[in-house]
């Protein structure tokens, strides 16, 4: 095997070039994986367009991509449960395993987590990566590499619905029907929630939500979301609302559409860190507000759902690009949101 590999390297704002870089060597507890598919995440696009997300600032050269899958080609001396040839998906965040948050199982909050494509940690828009075997999961033969790459966003939806403690018989509202909104809908359905309302401004995405199992969809450019939700719930509101759009307006809306004693689950990241929010209504309704940061202990269950055919990730993929056109893939995901759901880069 050659000692060099191709990588899509971000050299500046809206600029990615293909370079040859050394193939990494697996440590004792790691595997070397030949990357097959990488999903383009909203965070990848944000770093590509803006060069930063909050305090995380890209300092080129930098490699994007954290939703990925591939084939094991080499294992470290201490790896027992994986072997060359295994088809796998990888959980992109590696916690320290020692801090208070790690010890109580909330390792997504580890202050020292190493997370792919979060500056300064390089990601997976390249031909090979090394990764700890403990965060590398085998996929079934019938599962495609493209589907396996989307276990990462599915884990966000499954973790959010678990934290929300949503139960069958309750009504859920999902604000935003992009990838995260759609996998949240699938996660709710997998947990036995049949009354799921989906909201978006793009009819194509609402149609996909309907196909996946949402019992009602609302185009917020054509309907009053609050009024429609009240009509659908007998003026009570929903038990739980998931904000996935990352919009100030939809975040503010959450207190309006949730019933008394309900839950507000915040997943999306608004463009503003501070804005007006109806605190009086939040207190009067005794709403629980739950923030979601990535996920923890969600990957194994999501892989099992995918391997058993209980979730549909394949139909979320709308556009595909080769590694050599990674820059075009990122630009397309940014400029064509109304006609795409998930863009994938294949090796």
Automatic annotation (TrEMBL):
The record's annotation in InterPro entries points to: ADH-like_C, ADH-like_N, ADH_Zn_CS, ER, GroES-like_sf, NAD(P)-bd_dom_sf, SDH-like
Q: Which PROSITE patterns match?
A: ADH_ZINC
Q: What is its EC number?
A: 1.1.1.14
Record-linked Gene3D superfamilies: Medium-chain alcohol dehydrogenases, catalytic domain, NAD(P)-binding Rossmann-like Domain
Species assigned in the record? Atribacter laminatus
**Alphabetic keyword roster:** Metal-binding, Oxidoreductase, Zinc
Q: What is this protein called?
A: Sorbitol dehydrogenase
Superkingdom field: Bacteria
Q: Which family does it belong to?
A: Belongs to the zinc-containing alcohol dehydrogenase family.
Task: Return any one Pfam family short name.
Answer: ADH_zinc_N
């Amino acid at each position: 095997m050659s000692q060099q590999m191709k990588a899509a390297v971000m050299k500046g704002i809206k600029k990615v070039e293909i370079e040859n870089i050394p193939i990494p060597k697996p440590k004792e507890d790691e595997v070397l994986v030949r990357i097959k598919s990488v999903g383009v995440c909203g965070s990848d696009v944000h770093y590509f367009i803006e060069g930063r997300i909050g305090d995380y600032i890209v300092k080129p050269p930098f490699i994007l991509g954290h939703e990925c899958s591939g084939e094991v080609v080499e294992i470290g001396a201490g790896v027992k449960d994986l072997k060359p040839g295994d088809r796998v998906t990888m959980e992109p965040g590696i916690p320290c395993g020692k801090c208070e948050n790690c010890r109580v199982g909330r390792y997504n909050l580890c202050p020292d987590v190493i997370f792919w494509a979060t500056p300064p940690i390089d990601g997976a828009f390249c031909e090979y990566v090394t990764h700890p075997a403990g965060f590398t999961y085998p996929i079934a033969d019938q599962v495609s590499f493209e589907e396996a790459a989307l276990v990462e966003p599915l884990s966000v939806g499954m973790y959010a619905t678990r934290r929300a403690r949503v139960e069958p018989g309750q009504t859920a509202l999902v604000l935003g029907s992009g990838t995260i909104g759609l996998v949240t809908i699938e996660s709710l359905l997998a947990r036995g929630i049949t009354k799921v309302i989906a909201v978006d401004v793009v009819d194509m995405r609402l149609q996909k939500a309907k196909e996946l199992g949402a019992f009602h969809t609302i185009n917020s450019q054509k309907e009053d979301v609050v009024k429609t939700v009240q009509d659908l719930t007998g003026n009570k509101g929903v038990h739980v609302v998931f904000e996935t759009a990352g919009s100030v307006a939809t975040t503010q809306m959450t207190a309006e559409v949730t019933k008394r004693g309900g839950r507000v689950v915040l997943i999306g990241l608004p463009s503003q860190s501070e804005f007006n929010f109806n605190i009086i209504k939040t207190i009067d309704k005794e709403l629980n507000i739950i923030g979601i940061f990535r996920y923890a202990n969600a990957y194994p269950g999501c892989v099992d759902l995918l391997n058993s055919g209980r979730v549909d990730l394949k139909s979320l993929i709308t556009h595909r690009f080769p590694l050599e056109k990674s820059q075009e893939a990122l630009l397309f995901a940014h400029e064509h949101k109304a006609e795409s759901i998930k863009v994938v880069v294949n090796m």
